[in-house]
Amino acid sequence: MKVRVALCGGADLAASAQTLGLTLADEGQADIALIDLRDPTAIVRAAALPGTLPRVVVVSEAHDELVGALGFPRRSVATSCEPAVLGPLIAAALPPAARRATRSLLVTAVRGGVGRSLLAANIARRLATSRSTIGLDLTGSGVLAWWLGANAASWSELEDLTEELTAEHLAVVASETAPGLRVVGGAPCAPSPPLGRAALRVGLELAELVVVDAPILAEERTRDLLAAVDRVLVLTYDDPVSLASLDAADLPDDVWLIASQSAAMALAGRDVFRAIPRAEGAIAAAAVSRRAVGGDAGKAYDELAELIAIDAG
């Protein structure tokens, strides 16, 4: 469901609304108001909004304590227009009927070797602490299962069952890696596009959330699922080859662009939703024991997982 927002602010706020997939609407049709209190013009426009309309406001750091002293709910106050800051506040302020229910998440990239499976594994680990989660590795590499500490069965065991695949079939080959977390899909082969679609469908019967570790964006198995999932994350480096690939890619309008090992705020003319900082030491430590990545990269994964969990309701 598209969330309709009454926007009272400038270009930064509008860009964040677009990145978050919000639809601009008049005050009478809006689900929520997004207001930049640092902008006098926005304050005038916001004063005319209905008092019953939920709202999230952006204030300067100097006025943050003042807003708190006035008793305005802290969960509705931001000091930045960044999408990753506003996203959780907007989701928490929305009436339940207006929230977007995210139950399936697809992680892909414009080229290989950027940490896609690592991202999918860390998101799945964090989501599984609050709701049942299943990871589907459509790459044929088995890397997702490796990062989750499992030896997953090959998709070849299910290929002949594509037409009549059930949740029970998927459960038989799923490996439980932690309470509430299972993974399907090991080496050495990837599923056919029809099996990938079927696995997503029945995975939603097995778990509250499905995390898909998909091949690069250009591959058929990935393109085939873009319209079927609730949320798409595209991971990319900021090197020239990656930027050229990103510029040529046909990305969905509401994709979350994730910068890998980068602090970039925009890449190839597109806003970055979240940047995962360089963290070779933390990743190496996680690889030794096949556990969740910590440090600054872990904090970035935490923030992403929080956004997705709020979307899931």
Broad shape: globular
Distance between the termini: 13 Å
Beta-strand content estimate: 15-25%
Side by side, the strands of the main sheet go 8-9-7-10-6-11-12-15
Q: How many domains comprise the coordinates?
A: 2
CATH superfamily of the largest domain: P-loop containing nucleotide triphosphate hydrolases
> Uncertain runs with pLDDT below 50, 5 residues or more?
none
CATH fold assignment of the largest domain: Rossmann fold
Largest sheet, described in full?
A: 8 strands, mixed
Q: Please state the second-level CATH architecture of the largest domain.
A: 3-Layer(aba) Sandwich
Helical run tally: 12
What Rg is obtained from the alpha carbons, in whole angstroms? Answer: 20 Å
What is the element string, with H for helices and E for strands?
Answer: EHEEHEHEHEHEHHEEHEHEHEEEEHH
Mean pLDDT: 90
Tell me, what is the CATH class of the largest domain? Alpha Beta
